[in-house]
């Protein structure tokens, strides 16, 4: 049995999860509920501005739409990344339920 994986189908959920992560991170940082652990993103958010933070956080997943051929390794990476972002989304939801 051959496993067929359509990489582009996972890009939309990945992009939506990335948008949610970016928005929830922005809210958490602006109200000082959370701390950005990535030093580069922390610098960009606080020193370079929120617009650049959004551009980078959402621009990278959007750039995946430009790839024409997905290797098996990239497909697995997309599945892993989507799973990771799902976990991050649940972490954000846990934070917000503790706050409210």
Describe what this molecule looks like in 3D.
This protein has 100 residues and is mostly helical. The chain has one domain. 76% of the residues lie in helices and 0% in strands. The protein contains 4 helices and no strands. Helix 1 packs antiparallel against helix 3 (50-63) and helix 1 (7-30) packs parallel to helix 4 (72-99). The chain is globular.
The shape is: globular
Number-wise, the strands total 0
Largest beta-sheet details: none
Indicate the low-confidence ranges by residue numbers.
none
Helix/strand order: HHHH
Question: Mean of residue pLDDT?
Answer: 86
The total of helices stands at 4
When the domains are counted, the total is 1
Helix content: over 70%
Distance between the termini: 48 Å
How large is the radius of gyration? Answer: 15 Å
Strand content: under 5%
Structural class, by secondary structure, is mainly alpha
Task: Compile the SSE list and pairings.
Layout: H1 7-30, H2 39-48, H3 50-63, H4 72-99
What labels would you give this structure?
single chain, 100 residues, mainly alpha, 4 helices, 0% strand, globular
Short précis:
This protein is 76% helix and 0% strand. With 100 residues, it is mainly α.
């Amino acid at each position: 049995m051959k496993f067929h994986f359509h990489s582009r189908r996972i890009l939309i959920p990945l992009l939506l999860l990335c948008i949610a992560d970016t928005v929830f991170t922005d809210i958490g940082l602006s109200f000082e509920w959370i701390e950005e652990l990535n030093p580069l993103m922390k610098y960009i958010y606080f020193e370079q501005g929120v617009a650049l933070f959004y551009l980078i956080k959402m621009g990278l997943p959007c750039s995946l739409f430009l790839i024409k051929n997905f290797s098996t390794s990239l497909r697995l990476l997309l599945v892993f990344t989507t799973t990771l972002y799902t976990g991050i989304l649940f972490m954000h939801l846990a934070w917000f339920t503790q706050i409210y």
